[in-house]
Amino acid sequence: MSRTAPVPLKHERISAALAGEIEAGHFQPGARLPGEVALAQRFGVSRSTVRTALAELAEGGLIATRTGKGSFVLPREVPRTRRTPPPGRTTTMAERAYGALLGLAVGDALGMPTQLLSRAEILARYGPVLTGFEPAPPGHPIAAGMAAGQVTDDTEQAVILGRVLVDGGGVLDARELAARLVAWEAEMRARGSLDLLGPSTRRALAALLAGEDVETTGRNGDTNGAAMRIAPVGIATPPDPELLVAAVVAASRVTHNTSVALAGASAVAAAVSAGVAGAGVTGAIDAAVVAARAGSKRGRWVAGADVATRIRWAVDAVAGLADAAACDLVHRLVGTSLATQESVPAAFALLSLHPEDPWLTCRLAASVGGDCDTIAAMAGAIAGACAGSQGFPAAAVRQLEAANRLDLRGLAEALLALRGASA
After folding, report:
1. Which residues are CB-neighbours of 195 under 8 A, at least 6 positions away?
2. Fewest C-beta atoms under 10 Å: which of 65, 94, 291, 308?
3. Distances (CA, A) of 286 to 183, 291, 359
4. How confident is the model over 139-175, as pLDDT tens digits?
5. Coil, helix or strand for 123?
6. 78 belongs to a structural domain
């Protein structure tokens, strides 16, 4: 049965119409476009949909948006930077949203057997870079007995967060999230799994169950648990730093209400949101740095290296390196522990190496050792958001689906509807 061509989403129809008017000369270089309210009335859509369309035009180099002043047509001599997809690859917003969740799961499953191993152990067992999904090696401290392609707690917790967000109509109930995470861990223990809640999450939920207020339970959570499961917030929230950081705080405060954890989670959410809006990897990294700076000002301050600065430094450190050398540098210098200020910059560094190949990005990230299932999950979510779901081999997707019971496409569509830009 043949597939029909994907129907353009609302924001894509608006950006295409405005781009055509700009190219036809209806708006001259330097001219100010009508405001969000006027465009929303003209096209019969929400302001958030208009903002997404304008972001796509800005990514394509047609306009520049100035805070408080509006959007202006760029001069013709300004180089166009519109990202052109490879032939035959769909990059609708729906496919990019699905790509974000798919990339998260793919990276997580690739990193399942290599998590907690050193880079040297991975080199000896699998070579410089994983070639595909592998079963957990015998005697693995957490994943022993897991089959090739199975996901870990990273994907399962992200799905839980996403469903709580959808069930709340875009408003995340912290107590409901806590209750579902506790129930999930109990189910995992009953199955005999050792891949359970991380230290910050477990400590916070224990405090909550003991009667502590939800506003204070996450005051000591500084690990990467918030960043690893935050991708659904990026899908559901337009690429506005203020909106994004507020949504990240709401989703994370019960377990990770500290400056460093919120900076890392804000970076990942912003990069996913930018990718879903049509940005390439470079634009996603730029958005992540801005959001990380804003996120670092929220929650309880804790000592730790600045996440935004370390993202930029890590990306620059691997620039021009061969893949194996980049993995070695990330393992030795950037760090691959569950500390937010190590694992989040590590994910962005590896993401930057092959911006058009999310499958290779995930395999590289799963090959660095340490907390590499989480690093690969974060890098994969962003890479998938930027490239769309077709950036992953069909055979790998089938293997992932066969090994897990996940409705990632349905969840992506529900999250995207919260964003105000569904078709």
Report:
1. 142, 143, 152, 153, 188
2. 65
3. 37, 9, 22
4. 898 888 899 999 998 999 999 999 999 999 999 888 8
5. helix
6. no
Which pair of tokens denotes residue 133? 């999904």
Identify which of 119, 126, 121 has the alpha carbon closest to the alpha carbon of residue 148: 126
Q: Which residue has the tokens 């129930």?
A: 183
Q: Do 128 and 62 share a structural domain?
A: no
Helices (H), ranges, 62-213: 93-111, 119-126, 153-167, 174-190, 199-209
Q: In angstroms, what CA-CA distances link 103 with 98, 100, 168, 317, 408? A: 8, 5, 25, 24, 10
Q: Do 199 and 310 sit in the same domain of this protein? A: yes
Say if residue 260 is in the same domain as residue 114. Answer: yes
Residues 6 or more apart whose Cβ sits within 8 Å of residue 398: none
- Domain total in the chain: 2
Position 183 in a domain: yes
CATH number of the structural domain spanning residue 38: 1.10.10.10
Whether residue 200 is found in the same domain as residue 271: yes
Are 170 and 46 in contact, with CB atoms under 8 Å apart? no
265 conformational bin, left if phi > 0, alpha if psi -120 to 50, beta if neither? alpha
Structure tokens at 292: 């990380």
d(CA 153, CA 156): 5
CA distance 267 to 252: 13
Rounded to whole angstroms, the Cα distance separating 234 from 129 reads 28
| Domain assignment of residue 82, yes or no | no
One domain for residues 384 and 266: yes
Residue 31's domain comprises 10-73
Buried/exposed 282-305: b ≥16 CB within 10 Å, e otherwise: bbbbbbbbbbbbbbbebbbeeebb
195 neighbors 170 (Cβ within 8 angstroms): no
Q: Is the residue at 1 inside a domain?
A: no
Give the pLDDT confidence of 283-340 residue by residue, as tens digits.
999 999 999 999 999 999 999 999 999 999 999 999 999 999 999 999 999 999 999 9
CATH number at residue 225: 1.10.4080.10
Residue with tokens 């997404």: 52
Q: What angle separates helix 307-318 from helix 281-295, to the nearest 10 degrees?
A: 150
Same domain, 49 and 174: no
Integer Cα distance of 94 and 393 in angstroms: 18
**63 and 126 fall within a common domain:** no
pTM over 0.70: yes
